[in-house]
Amino acid sequence: MSKIPKRLLAASTAVATALVALPLIAPSASAAEAHVDNPYAGATQYVNPTWAATVEGAATRASDPALAAKMRQVETQPTAVWMDRISAITGNADGNGLRFHLDRALLQKQSGTPLVVNLVIYDLPGRDCYALASNGELPATAAGLARYKSEYIDAIASILADSKYAGLRIAATIEPDSLPNLITNSSQPECQTAAPFYRDGVKYALDKLHAIPNVYNYIDAAHSGWLGWDSNAGPAAKLFADVARTTQAGFASIDGFVTNTANTTPLEEPYLPNSSLTLNGNPIRSAKFYEWNFDFDEIDWTAHLYNLLIAEGFPASTGMLIDTSRNGWGGAARPTATSTSTDLNTYVDQSRVDRRNHRGAWCNPLGAGIGERPRSTPSGYPGSHLDAFVWIKPPGESDGASTDIPNDEGKRFDRMCDPTFVSPKLGNQLTGASPGAPLAGRWFESQFNELVRNAYPAIGGGSSSDQTAPSVPTGLRTTTVGDTSVALAWTASTDNVGVAGYDIYRGTTLAGSSATTSFTATGLTASTAYSFTVRAKDAAGNVSAASTTLAVTTTTGSTTPPGACRVNYSANTWNTGFTGTVKLTNTGSAPLANWRLVFDFANGQTLQQGWNATWSQSGTTVTAAPVVGSWNATIAPGASVDIGFNAAHTGTNNAPTAFAVNGQSCSIG
Ligand code: BGC
């Protein structure tokens, strides 16, 4: 629930009414909605007028007019309505009840366009068993479960089943953190006690809500920094399947999963795009920050989870939601390129956009920003099977109090919310929590200001209330390919507030921006492979997904090769395999940029995997090249890079007899 002091309620509701320009007469119940695969497809989402009014209050108080203008764009965004207590159903001092929101949703619904209301089911017995900040009102006892069923789930279900609301689509986020806690925190006595009630309560909620055709169930699936490791992910998918099998409708009672609820884990780590890469032979995922987890971000995690769920028997139609309300990590501290450090931890720490000191830091993390705007079926991530980006945690609502604050909701003081606390759960580091935080769920204005400032994509400064990204640029092609430059062109994107320009990426590096539909990338190296993508931006700050990737190899031409080279090659051979070690030295007098080493295997060897470069084999020819723009992409005169690979051989294992870099042959020795 959006929390605003009682005395402000009347005034703020009036503001909200003005804001959303409601028709004077509520439309009569619209036609019943059939249950579809993705409820968000072609739909708009409900904007909570109570939360919007609170944001409007913050905009009024903001001393910086540019910040206030951004807040007024944020208040037009849809956020979830949290049923965080039994009294939230009818409404309490902290917010309006469920019928209020559904009635407002009917008013917001445009005829012919479906509307999704995001609703959070959050009142299990023994709630938040591994933390204290959101402990709830119901004890983990049989009596607590009985109340959960009759006073909470039944009460919500009977309202949702009202035929008046049959024309809405209700997407229920089911019980954040509950099943994930049973995977990783089952040694905690509170979680052990709560476990049977969590399973039974979730099953009950799924049964009751699935029985209503226009309600969609999304189970909370934590985030990549919690369940991403295979040792957690596999058991989580199994637990989800086990719970599904106990329900009356089986797998059909679960429409999908929602990740990152109320967390700040990034959607993507643009400067660490491949968690399988190595640095100096060390996997980058072995850095302290990732603790060997392959899932660096929510795109990784949703794709990973989807595959595991399908293997457990979930239908292919299972969809994913990602809570992007606070995972933007923009602002001045956001890195703009991959680090050039050769120290693994420094490399990861300088490259990641997630600025927390530990991925377990969950309470009001300093430096976070609003993330992607809510939208349906975001393109560009086919492996993740996304139904939508959603804002489940309303930006500006606290995760927990930074000091002990007495209350009657069952909430307690969790030291993870205390900025002065050095937490053993974070490798004995400070929590990084924001100071001055109120109780979980209450309005926390200084945090809200920071979230808006650090939004990524940035919130546009104008007056537009647009929340839709421009269409993805299409038809990306080359017009001229030279030795050191590539001219690109593409077809214009469309957008309802107009396309403001395009960002052009070479690999993951921003190569430049253009106001038109063409761009020339310069400073390239001859005979070198590059990949380009383009994203469109609009005036409101929305950015499209990336275009399809265009691979281009610059021409060899007549330019002087970048410099002489030397290769030292050695192989450590056993029965059928060997490790090849290559030292490539720049013996020329100019830096050797974006080098590309080519050689032929002598006796039918087959490459298996390589490190410190991107390796590939085609026929007998093997190519190794650094990731464009990465730490070893340029070799200074006299300097070397060490790269290597594992390969298979049969019979003899002769060394290659010739090596070439960027079209020029190298000396051997
Ligand atoms: C709180 C809830 C609140 C929700 C949304 C949770 O952490 O426990 O009371 O409704 O956040 O802000």
From TrEMBL:
Residue ranges constituting the Fibronectin type-III domain according to the UniProt record: 472-559
EC number: 3.2.1.-
GO process terms (BP): cellulose catabolic process
Signal peptide region: 1-31
Occurrences of domain CBM2 (ranges): 558-669
Protein name, entry field: Glucanase
Keywords for this protein: Carbohydrate metabolism, Cellulose degradation, Disulfide bond, Glycosidase, Hydrolase, Polysaccharide degradation, Signal
Primary enzyme class: hydrolase
Cited PROSITE patterns: CBM2 (PS51173), CBM2_A (PS00561), FN3 (PS50853), GLYCOSYL_HYDROL_F6_2 (PS00656)
Keyword Translocase: no
Active site: 177
GO molecular function terms noted in the UniProt entry: hydrolase activity, hydrolyzing O-glycosyl compounds; polysaccharide binding
InterPro entries: Beta_cellobiohydrolase, Beta_cellobiohydrolase_sf, CBD2, CBM2/CBM3_carb-bd_dom_sf, CBM2_carb-bd_dom_sf, CBM2_CS, FN3_dom, FN3_sf
CDD domains linked: FN3
Family that this chain belongs to: Belongs to the glycosyl hydrolase family 6.
Coiled-coil positions: none
Lineage of the species this protein comes from: Bacteria, Bacillati, Actinomycetota, Actinomycetes, Propionibacteriales
Species assigned in the record: Kribbella voronezhensis
